[in-house]
């Protein structure tokens, strides 16, 4: 099970999620993980972070993964949907200084309500959501352009 974690282009840290990824690797719950974090100061013990990926690198990671774990950015979610990936979205929250407002929570809630993704709202539940995503069949995304 290949997991690609992408945290978008925000300049705020998202260490809550990066630390939990380390814990789950320590516990042998997940293994094959690639991470793009942009500007985090988190120093992982069990995986390597690429801060910036060019478009081709990013696209390859998305295409090659089985599960996409992302922040609540529309672009990353759409990239997963277009590539028929199982997506776990964990919105950045202003209370943790990960974002200036909580618009990502609204985005994640809406996509989950429509059956496209699974939402993660608490890092302590990531193991449970990873178990759930294995059996999850996302609704096929169709653009309404």
Key attributes of the depicted protein:
single chain, 145 residues, alpha/beta, 6-stranded parallel beta sheet, 14% strand, globular
Lay out the secondary structure.
Blueprint: E1 3-6, H1 15-26, E2 33-36, E3 49-50, H2 55-64, E4 67-70, H3 74-82, E5 86-89, H4 103-113, E6 118-119, H5 126-135
Parallel strand pairs: 1-2, 1-4, 2-3, 4-5, 5-6
What does this structure look like?
With 145 residues, the protein is an alpha/beta fold. The chain is 36% helix and 14% strand. It is built from five helices and six strands; from the N terminus they run E-H-E-E-H-E-H-E-H-E-H. A six-stranded parallel beta sheet has the order 3-2-1-4-5-6, with helices on both faces. Strand 4, helix 3 and strand 5 form a beta-alpha-beta unit. The longest helix has 12 residues. The chain is globular, with a radius of gyration of 14 Å.
Overall helicity:
25-40%
**Total number of strands:** 6
SS-derived structural category: alpha/beta
Overall shape: it is globular
Sheet with the most strands? 6 strands, parallel
Between the first and last Cα atoms, what is the distance in angstroms?
33 Å
Give helix and strand order, one letter per element, not per position.
EHEEHEHEHEH
How many helical stretches? 5
**Strand line-up of the largest beta sheet:** 3-2-1-4-5-6
Radius of gyration: 14 Å
Overall residue-averaged pLDDT value? 88
